[in-house]
From TrEMBL:
Residues 66-75 have a biased composition (Low complexity). Pathway: Steroid biosynthesis; cholesterol biosynthesis. This is Delta(14)-sterol reductase LBR. Its EC number is 1.3.1.70. Belongs to the ERG4/ERG24 family. It comes from the Eukaryota. GO terms for molecular function: Delta14-sterol reductase activity; DNA binding. It catalyses: 4,4-dimethyl-5alpha-cholesta-8,24-dien-3beta-ol + NADP(+) = 4,4-dimethyl-5alpha-cholesta-8,14,24-trien-3beta-ol + NADPH + H(+); 5alpha-cholest-8,14-dien-3beta-ol + NADPH + H(+) = 5alpha-cholest-8-en-3beta-ol + NADP(+); 4,4-dimethyl-8,14-cholestadien-3beta-ol + NADPH + H(+) = 4,4-dimethyl-5alpha-cholest-8-en-3beta-ol + NADP(+).
Length: 615
């Protein structure tokens, strides 16, 4: 069993995962099983690092001293060569002496050492720090007298704001192919061979949803909940305590319904692959790569609407969905299970860097449920991104339309009821907004953090279309009459929720993609050690999760047209509150680990999480 190299409490230089930046950290603990050190950065961020990603401070100081000691000899050699020159060229000799004098002064100010490795060429800048101030990714911190400022520039990557700041601080300029600068770099740098940087294998330590046992139970609980809700809506008395009788198993399956669902999935896949719409890059992955995504969800919605219009023109009975709603739900559940099995099997061959941070625990049940691979793709076809908005979300609108037509047929109405119109209109607005702002989904945790497994597959293909349409399904069998003043009040409530939801998400998305946008100059933020900022003005200075607040207000507006005779239509509101509280707690924990003291400062600045003055 290998012995540990660094002791608890020792101050060392730790590499930031996914980069070549080294910062001063303190060792807090060591995991004998995983052979990982838990280190704490100066801003409070705690991470687990391998021993190969940690170096002693003496090694950095040693390289610095080597560079300093080599400088006099080089200068001495230059002076001897200068004295041996021909007397016929005194002016040039004087110019070289002046140049050497300037270089001698610069050498006292800073020592530059370039490290070369097989993994990535980097430039390490050391600057003696005597009562100076240094910055960790934009956040100033005062250093001790004996500290060493260490900033590493990745020459292979694009310069970002941090690189520009370092270049300005050290008065560095881009290299050109002229002779003088080649001589400068050849004389002022010392090449030191170092070991290639090894990849960090990050296993998921903190398990959600009750760990292995909880996720195993949820794989049965989620389909059972969908079945229970749909059976309850079919009853004359849809009280939650009035448990519906279980139907025969053979009545729950119909091959025609399964075939229609598969055709629907393939149709949306064809729309997704059409070369229309712009192509954008997602947020950087842990290895620095950016995946490309085609933004054409709204076009897919338009094409779907045209296809449904053709079916209605050909007198296709769309209310067939209502008559076989249970069979369609079971077909979608079976399809999502098959897709989840495929996703897990293919993830076993995926490289370590492509695995999801939250679904790499090593436990089969947990990783199968959460999702083992972060961005599973077949060529350029991104399975998770496709399922996030297309089959389920657009299918939700088609199901609502089928319920509207079924209500008119069953109750012999010439026009739909006002309640059904409100439910369809509100939810149509929500779906169209999501597709119109499709690019914003690339910054959500579903895309950047969560893997694609049973949880998202079932949620996207079953839960969204068949549970989110619960109000419309309920109104078919339990019609509710509302007056116009009440309808206007409910509409105002939905508009308020939508405004909060959209403006908050737009602020977050725009700030994440381009913090330097002049349009965002009025927004204030707290800098963090990761280089990102935490907004403390606008909606994000009002509560920590204003988008969740808008979601809950809209969910209430969707349920109010169903009246107050039964609580079943409000299941979505209750579920949504529980879901968002869980997400909020997960976000709080994730952000505290990621941002450290900066997140504590943000929480002090913005004390309320979702509901102002309440929670």
């Amino acid at each position: 069993m290998p012995s540990r190299k660094f002791a608890d409490g020792e101050v060392v230089m730790g590499r930031w995962p996914g980069s070549v930046l080294y910062y001063e950290v303190q060792v807090t603990s060591y995991d004998d099983v995983a052979h990982l050190y838990t280190v704490k950065y100066k801003d409070g961020t705690e991470l687990a690092l391998k021993e190969s990603d940690i170096r002693s401070q003496s090694s950095f100081k040693h390289r610095k001293s080597q560079s300093s000691s080599s400088s006099p000899s080089r200068r001495s050699s230059s002076r001897s060569r200068s004295r041996s020159r021909s007397p016929g060229r005194p002016a040039r000799g004087r110019r070289r002496s002046a140049s050497q004098s300037r270089e001698h002064k610069d050498d006292k100010k800073k020592t530059i050492i370039q490290e070369t490795s097989l993994a990535l060429p980097v430039l390490v800048l050391f600057k003696p720090s005597e009562n100076n101030t240094k910055r960790y990714n934009g956040e100033p911190e005062t250093t001790e007298k004996n500290d060493t400022s260490c900033i590493i520039l990745e020459q292979k990557l694009k310069p970002d704001l941090e690189v520009k700041r370092v270049l300005e601080q050290y008065s560095l300029r881009s290299r050109k192919d002229d002779k003088k600068k080649e001589e400068f770099f050849s004389e002022k740098k010392t090449f030191v061979a170092v070991k290639p940087i090894e990849k960090v294998s990050m296993k998921t330590k903190e398990l959600e949803f009750g760990g292995r046992i909880g996720t195993f139970m949820m794989m049965f609980l989620l389909p059972a909940t969908v079945l229970y809700l749909l059976l309850l809506c079919k009853q004359g008395d849809p009280s939650l305590l009035n448990f519906p009788p279980l139907p025969a198993l053979e009545s729950l399956w119909e091959w025609k319904a399964f075939g229609i669902f598969v055709l629907w999935f393939l149709l949306q896949a064809v729309f997704y692959m059409l070369p229309i719409g712009k192509v954008v890059e997602g947020l950087p992955l842990s290895n620095g790569r950016r995946l490309q995504y085609r933004i054409n969800g709204f076009y897919a919605f338009i094409l779907t609407a045209a296809a449904v219009g053709v079916l209605l023109y050909l007198e296709f009975e769309l209310h067939y969905l209502y008559d076989h709603f249970m069979q369609f739900a079971v077909s979608a559940a079976a399809f999502s299970l098959a897709l989840s099995i495929y996703l897990y099997v293919r993830s076993l061959k995926a490289p370590e860097e492509d695995l999801a941070p939250g679904g790499n625990s090593g436990y089969f049940i947990y990783d199968f449920f959460i999702g083992h691979e972060l961005n599973p793709r077949i060529g350029s076809f991104d399975l998770k991104y496709f399922c996030e908005l297309r089959p389920g979300l657009i299918g939700w609108v088609v199901i609502n339309l089928a319920m509207l037509l079924a209500e008119m047929k069953i109750h012999n109405l010439s026009v739909p009821s006002l309640s059904m119109i409100l439910v369809n209109s509100f939810q149509l607005l929500y779906v169209v907004d999501a597709l119109w702002n499709e690019e914003a989904v690339l910054t959500t945790m579903d895309i950047t953090h969560d893997g694609f497994g049973f949880m998202l597959a079932f949620g996207d293909l079953v839960w969204v279309p068949f549970v989110y349409s619960l109000q419309a399904f309920y109104l078919v069998g339990h019609p509710t009459t509302i007056t116009w003043p009440i309808a206007v009040a409910i509409t105002v409530l939905n508009c308020v929720g939508y405004y909060i939801f959209r403006s908050a998400n737009s602020q977050k998305n725009n700030f994440r993609r381009n913090p330097a946008d002049p349009k965002l100059a009025n927004l204030k933020f707290i800098p963090t050690a990761t280089g990102k900022g935490l907004l403390v003005t606008g909606w994000w200075g009002f509560v920590r999760h204003p988008n969740y607040l808008g979601d809950i207000i809209m969910a209430l507006a969707w349920s109010l047209p169903c009246g107050f005779n039964h609580i079943l239509p409000y299941f979505y509101v209750i579920y949504f509150i529980c879901l968002l509280v869980h997400r909020e707690a997960r976000d709080e924990h994730h952000c505290k680990q990621k941002y450290g003291l900066a997140w504590e400062r943000y929480c002090q600045r913005v004390p309320y999480r979702i509901f102002p003055y309440i929670y």
